[in-house]
Amino acid sequence: MRRRAFLAAASLALVPWHGHAADSAALEAAIREAIGDAVPQEGGIELRVPAVAENGAQVPLTILADSAMTEADHVRAIHVFAPRNPTPGVASFHLFPGLARAEVQTRIRVAEEQAILVLAVHADGTVRRASAALKVTRGGCLA
What we know:
Layout: H1 3-9, H2 21-35, E1 41-42, E2 45-48, E3 52-53, E4 59-65, E5 75-81, E6 89-94, E7 102-108, E8 114-122, E9 127-136
Parallel strand pairs: 1-9, 3-9
Antiparallel strand pairs: 2-4, 4-7, 5-6, 5-8, 8-9
């Protein structure tokens, strides 16, 4: 799949992209590594992130994915991306059936104002996506 087609199919135009082509390529590579050629579908994930983070070095993030968490219907992985960070793949969490719910809480570093992208890979191979805008008063990553 060509780069533009992949990004369009994945609906990654969250906010205007002001990065370099190399940055876009790094994001595309990180997403492909996480989900292969799957095309994410909107919804099925709730993100809790502050609208404004005073310090980009420690931004709280809670992710809740809709899933029964049974053997047949569970979230296998949750991937977090910050497209404007020097390394866009922020974190990956691997889940298993039997958990009470598909929920992850963590703190992430972000370099600047951007949209956080989260992808949840389900047992049947479907991928759900969600994003949240985040403003940062002081960045947490060095370029």
